[in-house]
């Protein structure tokens, strides 16, 4: 009920869920609140019934004037919420808009629970079900509505055909040593005024017997009922027994320390308590060994501690270890890739650096010498004429070079054809260079050029740039110089011969002889040109092939260098991630190896080199951890003893006690069957600790029968013979409230009357018919009469 109660219920829900869905199935959860946004934010869980009490605005204006617990000064927030006003929290239920639907919703919850119980409610070993009402006594909705919701739950449960035990846990805002603290509490004073009022109303609900000095705080003790001033058709009041609750526990919470972690600690107390009664003793027999005359024990204060293996943290530790292992594997892989890629690059560099004219086969490095031997052997046997034919050249390369050379070692990923091609075509090019260098035809053409270059422009209409041809190739000297020159010369001689008369026999004969010489020289030079051109063409083909192979290898080298850069960057990123993970691992290892001296203590682990997935699979209990040497027996023993010693009665703070009676201390131990021996003698040989002595300090020790968390031992301290008169929340405030010379507001640094601070917070004045201050405050006219 209310935000705090919903948080307590949700915490229990999550705690059960961690231990398995089957356990969660034994529970049913209901969240009731006056603010829909809070309710949805907290209780949006599968199987969690949400009941929102909408602002009852329709009859508000009339009801606040006529209802005994309301006042015309009150305001109803349209956005929902009781805003810490207890009477308004009651009105959220006691109105014509919400009451019937809430009552029916709760009836439906019981009916659904019974339909899903699988017959367990009739099991004699179970004997019924527990209904827990969780709320804060100092808040608004949970504090002000809980007496009325208690009455509804009592009446609904008693109308069912099965046995239900009505239990409650209230979070009590602590005011330790209020009268002597000097400064007002840091938290809002409304918490404490509401808590005082709620405690007085709770006292009526549980038939609490006040000490004689505080009898004026008592309420009605017979014919108890809560009026429904909205007068629903179903009933006008809800009857109550002497005690509506079979069990009611108080948890002391420091409102000035309400961080998420602290709130979780407090909520774990209620979760452990509920689980203890669900999985251990039945409420009908609690406490088992109690033999106290008079009324049954109903009011308890609650405390809880635990010793646990921090399994979530261990899982996280192993996740980090696995992440580091994965990074190391990735680093190893990227290192291999870098090394292999560098070898490929170095292989290509070695191939590109080969100069077949000056190569030492013994010092080649990466490239197989057989590539060079085979290429050279085949180069010498190829006919020059076939070199210019691409098809023939391809056949030579594939059939006689590639097929007759070994494969490149698996150490490399270099394309063999590019490397062998580079060597083969370089060898061919060298051969062609040698042939051209020693080519007689080229020499003949050059000699002709030397002889006739001065006359080269003869017989030509255009001007010939002899100097430009001088620096050009032999072929071009023939094509653009000598060939046109000899052609023109021949034509000139032919023309001269035709023009010489026949009777000039000698002149004609000389001219004919000159023509014959020129023609013979032309034919010889033309043949030399053709031969030289064959060599040059072959050389061009080979050079083109060689350049292609060289280009292919350079492209491959560029790709490898790019990969090396990429892989190196990847390695640096992995090293950075590895360092981060190793730092994280050190932090987690430190955390796991050092005890956190908190309410819920984690044991110190050791021998982290053994903690891995296999470790998790084999771990079954605390005892197994001890056997595996992941935790020492001394550590477990000292932790259990310390946590038992840490348990204490949490709400009685006034010293000396107003009601001086020692509380009756009952220890509830939630312990897995595998670990129970740790509390029953297995740790007796640990000299630094005495678990049995710590257990013997309790009047009773009750063990759970079905707790199945092998890595957690939880303790619940249930304290009865506790008296709210011994608490600042009730005792000190009541002393100030009833002393005419004191004002409660002084305790909180407030300038307010006691009636406004106390009487205004009593949301159920009908429970205190003999308290004139309350009755006068609520109905001054009737009180005067």
Automatic annotation (TrEMBL):
<feature type="coiled-coil region">
    <location>
        <begin position="317"/>
        <end position="344"/>
    </location>
</feature>
<dbReference type="InterPro" id="IPR036525">
    <property type="entry name" value="Tubulin/FtsZ_GTPase_sf"/>
</dbReference>
<dbReference type="GO" id="GO:0005525">
    <property type="term" value="F:GTP binding"/>
</dbReference>
<dbReference type="InterPro" id="IPR025904">
    <property type="entry name" value="Tubulin-like"/>
</dbReference>
<dbReference type="Pfam" id="PF13809">
    <property type="entry name" value="Tubulin_2"/>
</dbReference>
<protein>
    <recommendedName>
        <fullName>Tubulin like</fullName>
    </recommendedName>
</protein>
<feature type="coiled-coil region">
    <location>
        <begin position="508"/>
        <end position="584"/>
    </location>
</feature>
<dbReference type="GO" id="GO:0005874">
    <property type="term" value="C:microtubule"/>
</dbReference>
<dbReference type="GO" id="GO:0007017">
    <property type="term" value="P:microtubule-based process"/>
</dbReference>
<dbReference type="InterPro" id="IPR017975">
    <property type="entry name" value="Tubulin_CS"/>
</dbReference>
<keyword id="KW-0175">Coiled coil</keyword>
């Amino acid at each position: 009920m209310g935000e705090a109660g919903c948080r307590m219920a949700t915490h229990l829900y999550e705690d059960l869920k961690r231990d398995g869905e089957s356990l969660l199935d034994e529970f049913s959860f209901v969240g009731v609140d006056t603010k829909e946004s809070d309710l949805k934010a907290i209780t949006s869980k599968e199987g969690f019934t949400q009941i929102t009490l909408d602002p009852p605005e329709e009859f508000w204006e009339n009801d606040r004037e006529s209802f005994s617990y309301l006042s015309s000064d009150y305001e109803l927030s349209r956005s929902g919420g009781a805003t810490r006003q207890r009477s308004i929290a009651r009105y959220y239920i006691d109105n014509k808009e919400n009451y019937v639907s809430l009552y029916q919703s709760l009836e439906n919850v019981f009916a659904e629970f019974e339909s899903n119980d699988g017959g367990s409610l009739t099991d004699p070993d179970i004997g019924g079900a527990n209904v827990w009402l969780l709320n804060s006594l100092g808040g608004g909705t949970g504090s002000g509505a809980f007496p009325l919701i208690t009455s509804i739950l009592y009446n609904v449960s008693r109308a069912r055909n099965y046995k239900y035990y009505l239990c409650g846990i209230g979070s009590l805002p602590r005011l330790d040593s209020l009268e002597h603290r000097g400064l007002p509490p840091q938290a809002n004073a409304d918490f404490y005024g509401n808590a005082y009022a709620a405690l007085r109303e709770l006292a009526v609900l549980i038939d609490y017997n006040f000490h004689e000095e505080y009898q004026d705080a008592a309420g009605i003790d017979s014919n108890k009922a809560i009026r429904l001033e909205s007068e629903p058709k179903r009933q006008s009041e809800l009857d109550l027994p002497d005690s509506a609750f079979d069990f009611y526990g108080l948890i002391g919470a420091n409102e000035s320390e309400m961080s998420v972690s602290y709130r979780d600690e407090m909520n774990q107390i209620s979760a452990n308590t509920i689980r203890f009664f669900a999985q251990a003793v039945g409420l009908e027999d609690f406490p088992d060994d109690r033999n106290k005359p008079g009324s049954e024990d109903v009011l308890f204060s609650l405390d809880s501690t635990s010793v646990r293996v921090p399994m979530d943290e261990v899982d996280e530790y192993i996740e980090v270890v696995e992440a580091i292992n994965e990074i190391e594997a990735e680093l190893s892989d990227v290192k291999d890739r870098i090394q292999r890629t560098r070898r490929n690059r170095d292989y290509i560099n070695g191939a590109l650096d080969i100069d077949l004219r000056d190569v030492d086969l013994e010092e080649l490095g990466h490239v197989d010498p057989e590539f060079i031997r085979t290429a050279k052997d085949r180069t010498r046997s190829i006919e020059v004429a076939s070199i210019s034919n691409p098809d023939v050249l391809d056949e030579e390369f594939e059939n006689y070079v590639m097929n007759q050379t070994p494969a490149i070692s698996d150490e490399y990923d270099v394309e063999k054809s590019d490397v062998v091609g580079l060597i083969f075509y370089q060898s061919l090019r060298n051969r062609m260079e040698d042939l051209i260098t020693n080519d007689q035809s080229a020499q003949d053409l050059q000699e002709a050029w030397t002889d006739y270059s001065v006359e080269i422009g003869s017989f030509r209409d255009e001007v010939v740039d002899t100097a430009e041809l001088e620096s050009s190739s032999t072929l071009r000297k023939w094509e653009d110089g000598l060939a046109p020159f000899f052609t023109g010369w021949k034509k000139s001689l032919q023309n001269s011969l035709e023009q010489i008369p026949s009777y000039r026999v000698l002149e004609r004969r000389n001219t004919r002889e000159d023509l014959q010489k020129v023609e013979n020289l032309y034919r010889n030079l033309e043949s030399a040109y053709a031969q030289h051109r064959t060599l040059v063409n072959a050389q061009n083909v080979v050079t083109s092939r060689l350049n292609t192979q060289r280009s292919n290898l350079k492209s491959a080298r560029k790709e490898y260098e790019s990969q090396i850069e990429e892989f190196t960057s990847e390695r640096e990123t992995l090293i950075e991630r590895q360092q981060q993970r190793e730092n994280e691992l050190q932090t987690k290892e430190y955390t796991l190896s050092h005890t956190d001296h908190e309410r819920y203590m984690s044991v110190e682990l050791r021998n982290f080199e053994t903690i891995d997935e296999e470790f998790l699979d084999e771990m079954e209990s605390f005892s197994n951890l001890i056997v595996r040497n992941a935790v020492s027996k001394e550590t477990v023993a000292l932790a259990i003893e310390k946590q038992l010693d840490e348990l204490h009665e949490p709400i009685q703070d006034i010293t000396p006690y107003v009601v001086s009676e020692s509380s009756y201390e009952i220890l509830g131990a939630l312990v897995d069957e595998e670990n129970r021996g740790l509390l029953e003698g297995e740790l007796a040989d640990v000299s630094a600790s005495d678990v049995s002595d710590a257990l013997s300090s309790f009047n009773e020790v009750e063990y759970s029968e079905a707790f199945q968390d092998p890595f957690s031992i939880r303790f619940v301290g249930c304290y009865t013979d506790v008296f709210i008169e011994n608490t600042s929340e009730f005792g000190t405030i009541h002393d100030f409230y009833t002393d005419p010379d004191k004002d409660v507001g002084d305790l909180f640094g407030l300038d307010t009357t006691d009636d406004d601070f106390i009487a205004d917070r009593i949301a159920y004045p009908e429970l205190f018919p003999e308290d004139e201050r309350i009755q006068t405050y609520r109905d001054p006219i009737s009180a005067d009469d």
